[in-house]
Amino acid sequence: MDLIINSHEGDIYLVNEQQHNSQRILCDSNHHPLRFASISSIKQHYQEQAIDKVWLVQHSAYDEMCGLQSANQPMKMPLSW
């Protein structure tokens, strides 16, 4: 399984699990996206599972805040797990 960690302002991390070209967001028992406060807490959540690749996706509103055209592509980088 691969993880795609989406980083948002305010120390909010949301996780998408990817298996066999299918993605789903990790949700709690009420079907709300499960929020993490750090990458360490995500690691702890998945410590018992086999993870193949982990990607960090950073969304930024900086360009829009400065009056520039929005950069459509977020920054995506692999993480050592």
Written overview of the protein:
It holds the Pfam family DUF6482. This is DUF6482 family protein. InterPro entries: DUF6482. With 81 residues, this protein is mainly beta. It is built from two helices and six strands. Strands 1, 2, 3, 4, 5 and 6 form a six-stranded mixed β-sheet that branches. It starts with a strand and ends with a strand.
First CA to last CA: what distance?
13 Å
Total helical segments? 2
The helix/strand class is mainly beta
Compute the CA-based radius of gyration.
14 Å
Strand content is: 35-45%
Series of H and E elements: EEEEHEHE
The poorly predicted ranges are: none
User: Helix amount, in percent?
Assistant: 10-25%
The figure for the number of domains is 1
Characterize the biggest β-sheet: 6 strands, mixed
Using the alpha-carbon principal axes, give the shape: globular
**What is the arithmetic mean of pLDDT?**
88
What's the total count of β strands? 6
InterPro entries: DUF6482
Organism: Agarivorans aestuarii
Pfam families: DUF6482 (PF20090)
Protein name: DUF6482 family protein
Describe the SSE topology.
Blueprint: E1 2-8, E2 12-19, E3 22-25, E4 35-36, H1 39-45, E5 54-58, H2 62-65, E6 75-79
Parallel strand pairs: 1-5
Antiparallel strand pairs: 1-2, 2-3, 2-4, 5-6
